[in-house]
C-alpha cells in the first residue's frame, strides 16, 4: 500500500470508529503524524486528498476539520467524476436513472406538499406550449429535482442530482431532432404532476419510468 493510501486509511478509520466526529478539529499535523506513525508529508497528502472529496475541510489559519459528512456534500464528488463520462456510456447513466427516479417519484407522491406541487405547476405553465429546447431541458432538471427532494431520502436525491448531468446533452439533442420530443416531455410532466396530486404512488412511478425510458429508447435508436 502506498504511504499516502495508508495515511488516508488511518484517518478514515479514525472517522469511522468515532474517534473523529463530524465537525471535529483534527489534532495538529505534527501530533497526528506521530500518533498515526506517519510522516508529515504523507499525512499532508492524505488530508489534501480527503478534502477534495469533502471528507475534510482545510481552513487556512484555523486548522483541519471533519466536514458534516452529509450525503449531499459527500456525493458532490460523484457529480465531478461523472462529468468525465464517455458518450457511449450515456445509455448506462439513463438506465440507472430509470431505476432510481421512478422509485423516488413514488416516494414523493406520499410526501410532497401541495404548495410544492403548485410551484411546479406554475413553472410548467410558464413554459408555454412551445418552449425552446434549452429552456425545456433546464426546466426538466429543476422539475425532477423538486420532486426527488420530497422523497425524504437525501442519498437518493444526491445520487440522482449527480447522474442528471451526463444525460443533459442527450436530452437537448433529442429535443432538436425528434419531432414530438417537446410536446411529449410536457405531456409526461403534466401526467407525473397529476399522479402526485392524486397521491397515486404507482401511477407516479409508471409515468416517471415512461418519461426516462422515452429518452433512453430514442437514444438507443440513434446510436
TrEMBL record:
InterPro entries linked: GntR_C (IPR011711), TF_FadR/GntR_C (IPR008920), Tscrpt_reg_HTH_GntR (IPR000524), WH-like_DNA-bd_sf (IPR036388), WH_DNA-bd_sf (IPR036390)
Domain of life: Bacteria
Name of one Pfam family that matches: FCD
Coiled-coil zones: none
Every HTH gntR-type domain range: 1-69
Organism lineage string: Bacteria, Bacillati, Actinomycetota, Actinomycetes, Kitasatosporales
The protein's name in its UniProt record: FadR/GntR family transcriptional regulator
CDD domains assigned: WHTH_GntR
Keywords: DNA-binding, Transcription, Transcription regulation
Organism listed in the record: Streptomyces polygonati
